[in-house]
Design a protein that fits this description.
The chain is an all-alpha fold. The radius of gyration is 21 Å and the shape is elongated.
């Protein structure tokens, strides 16, 4: 009987040790629900906990991407209007970054600080441009990123996790207004948004 209990104890200790190694290890990129690293989730519903972690990771990644892109535009854009817009968006997203980190702490979620490959590629493509071509490509990429970001928060606004739901609902009106202003900035600048990877079309 004692030998049987000892075997069970060894097995449980091995499982706990494996879980501890997973928690302390780096998060994988790209991140998905099955790779949601958490420590003692306070939520009873495991799928709900995974969905919350997934939202936090995606929000962190998209927010970091937009911040880096806007910081670049604030110094490289040829239009003063585009520069001013980029600085405004960067300030908002840096504040949002602090909120997302706080949310990650509340939900015991470890986020990966690495950008996705497509985000890295977009930043590299932007860095190779200058002048009005940069302005056009930046506005296109920023509007596209803001659209994804707002969509992510729209979905989270219906989350069964009250903490996630409240955060998304409070943030969404600002993101939607930001998206609207992005289009207005492009229009006021007299620029036609183009794909960051292709540049303006030949006429």
């Amino acid at each position: 009987m004692k030998r049987g209990l000892w075997s069970v104890f060894v097995m449980v200790a091995a499982v706990c040790s494996t879980q501890a190694q997973i928690v302390e290890g780096p998060a994988l990129v790209p991140f998905n629900r099955s790779q949601a690293y958490r420590r003692n989730p306070p939520l009873d519903n495991v799928r709900q906990a995974q969905d919350s972690a997934y939202f936090i990771q995606q929000a962190f990644s998209e927010n970091k991407f937009e911040t880096l892109m806007c910081d670049m535009a604030a110094s490289r854009a040829s239009s003063d209007l585009v520069k001013a817009w980029a600085r405004t968006v960067a300030r908002h997203h840096k504040d949002l970054n602090r909120q997302i980190k706080s949310l990650a702490g509340k939900r015991y979620t470890i986020v990966s600080k690495q950008l996705r490959p497509d985000q890295k590629a977009a930043l590299n493509d932007l860095s190779a441009l200058s002048g009005p071509q940069f302005d056009q490509a930046f506005l296109a990429a920023q509007t596209d990123a803001e659209t994804r970001f707002a969509g992510l928060f729209e979905s989270a606004a219906a989350s069964p996790d009250d903490t996630i739901k409240s955060f998304a609902q409070n943030s969404l009106p600002i993101l939607q207004r930001e998206l609207q202003l992005a289009h207005e900035t492009a229009s006021a600048s007299g620029l036609t948004a183009v794909d960051v990877t292709t540049g303006p079309s030949d006429r």
